[in-house]
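Two proteins, back to back. First:
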Amino acid sequence: MPILHMDTDAVLNLSYQVGRAAAEIRQEMQVLSQSVYTLSNVWQGSSCDAFMVEAQQALRGLANLASEGTTLSRRLQREVSEWEVAGSAFD
């Protein structure tokens, strides 16, 4: 039977880093979204419309990335919790 090992502190640290990155992406998205909205007030025409479509797609992509980051962070935290519970059975 193979020996399984996890450095729970390292995995938990990564979880926090991923969670912080997801939060930072969300904050920057808000700034970008406001900038795009402001730009729409000073630029009009078909090229602006095309840019707005692309910008909204990019913002949706960032939102998905932030959501996936949050999900990964939570999964790592749950995994650490499960390992700690399993490990406590051997104490």
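And the second protein:
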Amino acid sequence: MQTFLVLLFAYLFSQFFRSFVAIIAADLTRDLGFGPAELGWISSAWFLAFALSQFPVGYLLDTKGPRRTMGWLMTAGVVGGLLFSVSNGLTLSVIGMALVGIGCSPMLMAGLYIFGRTSPPERFAVLSSMLVGFGNIGNLVAATPLAFAASSIGWRMSMAAVSVAMALAAALVLLLLKDPPQIERKDGKASMLGDILTVVKIRALWFAFPIHLFGYAAVATERGLWIGPFLQSVHGLEAILRGHIAFAMSVGMACGALACGPVSRYLNGPKTPAVIATAITAALFLTLAFFPQLPVPIVAAVLTGIGFFGLTYSLLLSHGRPFLPDYLLGRGVTFLNFLAIGGAGLMQAVTGKSMERALLSGVPPAEAYSILHGGIGITVLLVLLLFLRAPARP
């Protein structure tokens, strides 16, 4: 229980930082002059740095253990958060967010590594879904509470306070977390690049790689970047109401993640519920595409549904886990995580640039967001069709 609580406290910050930009986007626009492209770069800097860090994180988990890997990398995140809180332009903001991404990169993977090494396979889906589900409390904090904090003490003080709390979490990791025993390899010395290539060569996962790349990216891009600007420019909602709807979507994400473990057991594995949930997610994005100016309560319900059904993250990781040998567990799950987070960073950068071009060319906001949501929905549908060809188990 102590291990789970320490991992959970740390993981809250990973969930917070991947979604907070949508809530303070208007503040960043007002104070720093950021438009859609700059907001996209800030958010994608976190995701891209996080994604690229997965390669050394996997190597370090397998060779050094989760305690040191997680504790020391989190200090980079603390520095990055403080830099972001004093930023006066795009460069320092991007550097700060990149450091925060590095600091958050081992948080979930350390937990999955410990669960994979110390728990039977059937418990892996339950524990991982609990960590992701309860970890979405960080998403909740990055909604209405952050909107209130930014309104009362400002976004800079709010970010500084979050960075100090993250420093406390890093200290608890270093003091209380215990590493599982290391596994001696039978095939010689560990090689970061060689072992990643070994994971890539697992043919059974080839049709699953695309949904790892863009499945989580869809919900992360909506919640982490566009929900606030969409509700402001298309529906005219002020900050607190935007925060309420973002909070509802985050609750949906948390509940969806918590449901993954029990549903996976009920449906005899993670693939079937992942397919069903992804199909519903695509349909909900297409609903926003065809009907961008639905009444606000219905829009809130659709966004909450995207959060609930779109967070198939732990299902997809649980699907991939049995295909990974134990000695490659760290590098295997971090590679899958690299695809998920890298895809989110890529989607946020691309959508940020495309939205800027659309709005500058005079496309009405409702039409621009229809195109955005339609593109995301079609992408989710295409990767789902490929995932149908992936085997359910080894």
